[in-house]
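[worker-b] picked up task from shared queue
[worker-b] task type: protein-ligand structure
[worker-b] ligand name resolved to zinc ion; SMILES cross-checked against name lookup, match
[worker-b] sequence length check passed
[worker-b] input payload:
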Amino acid sequence: MREVAIIGIGGTKFGELWDMSLRDLGIQAGLAAVADAKLAAEDIDALYVGNMSAGRFIEQEHVAALIADYSGLARDNIPATRIEAAGASGGLAFREGYLAVASGMHDIVVVGGAEKMTDVGDVLAAEIQSTAADQQWEVVFGATLASLFAMIARRHMYEFGTTREQIAQVAVKNHKHGALNPNAQYQREIDLSTVLNASPVAEPLGVFDCAPLSDGAAAVVLCSMDRARSYTSKPIRIAASAQASDTLALHSRTTVTSFKATQVAAQRAFRQAGRRPEQVQLAEVHDNFTIAEILAIEDLGFFPKGQGGKATMDGETALGGKVAVNTSGGLKARGFPFGATGVAQLVELVEQLRGEAGKRQVPDATLGLAQNAGGTGATVVVSLLEVA
Amino acid sequence: MATARFWRENPSRYNLKAVRCNNCGRVFFPPRGVCSVCHRKSIGKMECLNLKGEGEVFSFTVVHEAPSQFEILKPYMVVMVKMDEGVMLTSQLINSDPKDVKIGMRVKATLRRLGEDGPSGVIYYGYKFRPIEG
Ligand SMILES: [Zn+2]
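[worker-b] inference finished, payload out:
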């Protein structure tokens, strides 16, 4: 296996982008990443696209070919592949691109993630989100994805004494970070009472515990490390990329207060990189619901199981804390276009590791982690990036 | 949901049809052909059983933002129930006030209307949970 670097990044703003289609989003992000890497279109060997549900959102499948076509890459007939794993589609597309370069099959690969979600109404969008859960044995009975995370939250409170306020603090912290990110969907701070008094979605979770519906795209360019310095003076090494699965239905597991797939993917990633959780300075984690960030920071090994809520309330995951979590604003404030999210996490890490993150810069950042999850953690991808 | 996609699961939705691995004793719901722990050692040893339908609340929530087909029910309760046979199920909890529901509460499965296939579609049924009195 060869070492692989990220040599270019690009992305759109996230939000309700009424004037942009899926193809507009994908192209804008992809072209920005290619320009950032100072590549010509003919340098690109393959395209991978993370997308969860274009078929339901815009009644268009076959979106990898679409984006290759409209970004001007199809003229060289390069392979273009769409990857789907619900909310983990982007992280998985990245991993497939990484494997393609690491194996020696390709030298330069573009990985994009895109989702156009606001062409449908809120109720239908939530139904599409719930297709990440088990349709036949959870959703048919009235469960929604929010309700499953609400039951995780209830169990975490029961088993570890985690408080409602500690869970809500995740949203407060991520909005504070989002206020520093010019590409975030929400760039305003909120206070704890706003989260606690918001209208309920699935108790104990309310509107401000849930990531929003968003349009957006993000892209990265991958290159073998031996060629990376001919394109950029700041290549970012992919120190590890690991993936794990778990049961599709939440109820098929012995515990719901850990995501085993996060734990296993993290162990594999740290082993591959020869690193430990204590060495990670910043992490982008999959906070599709506030409680999910608390599980993630425990399962990744940053804090002991059951201590994630307290650590959040104590500021240990904020900028300036022990490990800066979701400096981009996370899914909660940066926005959550499903298939784009896993790639956008990597874009944020690269900006930080290059020292180009502006007001939200983590000082002297050299090692960052991304955790991207699908559904209730049936697919998890954990990646580690470091300054080369 | 297309009708066939629903009725082919009726044995488990109506009668809580499950399987037990006679190699390790684990129960699986809905039935599956191979034990996910014993793998090939379980071949030929997966035995059908119907769950008795009783268990305790493992976790619960009150749903306020619902899919269109459940709009009329909201707010409604969703629970994960640990059945006495050891397997866990997800469905609605009925006949109870959210204020009275606690983790560990004893509940029993009961057959109810779950929904229908579009405005003119076939009504389909399955289990919901209700508290066990006393
Ligand atoms: Zn077995």
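[worker-b] attaching auto-annotations
[worker-b] The CA atoms of residues 270 and 276 of chain A lie 6 Å apart.
[worker-b] releasing lock
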